[in-house]
Amino acid sequence: MAGPALTVSRASEGDLGFIMATERRPGYEALVGHWEEARHRAALADGSHACFIGRSGGMPIGFVLLRFWNAPERVTLVRRVAVTTPGHGDGRRLLSAVVAHAFRETEVHRLQIGLFPDNLRARRAYEAVGFVAEGISRGSAFFGGVFRDELVMSLLRPEWKALNRG
Ligand SMILES: CC(C)(COP(=O)(O)OP(=O)(O)OC[C@H]1O[C@@H](n2cnc3c(N)ncnc32)[C@H](O)[C@@H]1OP(=O)(O)O)[C@@H](O)C(=O)NCCC(=O)NCCS
């Protein structure tokens, strides 16, 4: 039986506690970045970042932070994705909904994600949404004081349209 519907909305300052707790969940420190509150507040207000919260049954289940939202270059980065309960399909449902927001609300042509190549769970989830692995971007993430390689994945508008007949 299907669970409660997932709803997605833009984050507000009232969501910062949830966002900061989620990006700090045990085990996530090796997978995803985290910011202090002031940095999150700045991102909420800078007009370039867009943060979406997913809710199921009224409870927040994860967030997606985008950068270069609605940029004239029409390339948007998926900067951070995290859910409270991984491995149950929430991540792909949430990202899929946020991707639909991006393609419907802006003229973005390319959505791009960088992830650590050994994060196979994230890769599987992104592939399920339609992202395609392009290759390794060497030393592109300054993370925990070291430069790490990232796997670059992308989803182009025509591919998304074909997948969603939209
Ligand atoms: C990445 C993340 C958002 C994905 O969301 P999710 O809800 O866990 O993902 P889903 O359940 O939709 O899909 C996970 C897929 O990975 C698979 N998987 C789970 N653990 C895995 C593992 N250790 N190795 C390989 N695949 C794995 C699952 O079987 C599933 O694939 P399938 O349905 O095709 O079989 C979530 O795991 C998360 O928040 N992780 C911690 C933070 C993080 O890594 N963020 C991404 C940084 S780029």
Automatic annotation (TrEMBL):
EC number(s) recorded for this UniProt protein: 2.3.-.-
Class of enzymatic activity (EC top level): transferase
InterPro entries: Acyl_CoA_acyltransferase, GNAT_dom
Key words of the record: Acyltransferase, Transferase
The species this protein was found in: Aquamicrobium soli
Annotated protein name in UniProt: GNAT family N-acetyltransferase
Pfam families: Acetyltransf_1
GO molecular function: acyltransferase activity
Domain N-acetyltransferase span(s) in chain numbering: 6-158
